[in-house]
Design goal:
The chain contains nine helices and two strands. It has 155 residues and is mainly alpha-helical. Among the domains are: 31 residues; 51 residues, no CATH class. The protein has a two-stranded antiparallel sheet with strand order 1-2.
């Protein structure tokens, strides 16, 4: 019971501080992290009145209808491969080209059966769609910090 009270009090203090600091941390446009700019653009596109919805527009589809068409296509694009052919989530070209056991172990992309050197994937989760919306300097800083950690860990 004490741990539940502690968790609730910490959460409520956090929400309270977030509400107090909302004017400084949420309202200014400079405070948005670039990763959510795509969501901000989506919400602004949904809620602003533009000429696209006028009867004489060159676009035949409303924004909401276009959103649902794209959402359905994306659902089909992600659901069919994951449900019917999970083998396409990751594969290794080196394993397909050789019969050497050592090479197959090094290049195997299956879980728990190899290291995964040269493994490729078609799954959007592993590709990392977040890197498409992040600015170059953030991606570069992330890559350099990972290389630094790798070098300091293993050398």
């Amino acid at each position: 019971m004490n741990s539940l009270a502690f968790v609730m009090s910490v959460q409520l203090i956090g929400f309270g501080l977030a509400g107090i600091m909302r004017r400084f941390l949420v309202k200014p446009a400079a405070m948005y992290w670039p990763g959510i700019l795509s969501q901000v653009a989506l919400f602004v596109g949904f809620h602003e009145n533009a000429a696209h919805d006028e009867p004489f527009s060159k676009y035949r589809m409303s924004r909401f209808k276009f959103f649902w068409v794209v959402a359905f296509v994306f659902f089909v694009y992600t659901w069919i491969p994951e449900f019917f052919s999970p083998v396409l989530q990751s594969f290794s070209i080196l394993c397909l080209l050789t019969s050497n056991k050592v090479t197959r172990f090094l290049a195997s992309s299956s879980r728990g059966n190899g290291i995964g050197v040269g493994a490729m994937t078609l799954d959007w989760v592993y590709i990392g769609g977040g890197n498409l919306t992040a600015p170059f300097y953030a991606s570069l800083q992330f890559a350099l910090s990972n290389m630094y950690i790798f070098i300091m860990t293993y050398f």
